Hints:
The chain is mainly alpha-helical. The chain has helices at 17-32, 37-45, 57-65, 110-113, 118-121, 137-145, 153-172, 186-190, 205-209, 227-235, 244-256, 266-278, 287-295; strands spanning 3-6, 12-15, 34-36, 71-74, 81-84. Helices cover 42% and strands 6% of the residues. The chain has a 3-stranded antiparallel beta sheet with strand order 3-5-4. A two-stranded antiparallel sheet has the order 1-2. The protein is elongated, with a radius of gyration of 28 Å.
Amino acid sequence: MAYLRREAGGPQTPMTFSQFIKETAERILGREKCLTVSGLTMAIKNDPCCKYLQLKPLSLQKILQGYSESFSLKGSQEDPNVSLHLSIDVCDNVRNCPGFPQCKDLHICKYFMLDNCIHTKRKTRKPCPYPHTLSSKHNRKVLQHHHLLYMDLPTIKKMIQEESGDKTQSTCTSPTHEHVPLKLCYYYNRRACERENCSYLHLCEFFVKGTCKFGRRCKKSHDVHSRQVQEILSENNLDLDGDVEDILESLREELYGGSVEEEESDEEEDEEQIEVYSQHCPPRRSYTNFRRGDRH
Length: 296
């Protein structure tokens, strides 16, 4: 029996029996996540593409062991559990990356892979500067290197999301690192933050809310691209590739649920903001005050 695969937009090409079984197993495990070898053998036999196929669990296990970069076998030796093992990641330096073969990671928007790209979620006016497809020449070479050329995008996205979730969970449960919720630094906005590595955003809270009346004269940071802010946003999987307004909109949604809560009154908000500003701006001395100071 001849086994063929059809490339996207291209002709059918022959493949070996083990490659055929590998791709079928990947497709099934992309839905089922984990099966025993015997259960996967039965699922392959029931697959519409595998009619009249005679396959034993031991033969399947030997085939899967030959693709250790794609499958993980754990449990008993007689009937181990099989799951997909994704040995691929998303490149963090797409713009300046030399490409394959120096880089063996995907050149794709990492926020798109996590279903958190601000350009897709809010349909912004500016398109995302990073690709949202695996069809580029570099990505196809990377997928071929990892033996994932014929795995579809939704399956790869789901596996990267699961792997990212596992990393986040392990980081949060680590005794040396505690995940801190996304918040503005209270001490930075009221007086001064003296913590060496503060885990909260050093941004003007009125700027984030869109109500700062001081603009460039404000003594608090309005820079959403500062290193401290970028690191915290990245830890919380927020898109950093949009413009300032897109990042602020995403930040408001995380901090305030998409709508900024109004203060009790405009006067109280003005007084609070003036108080914060005055702590970093010494009051101007008038001529009258200066003369009064001389008399005392």
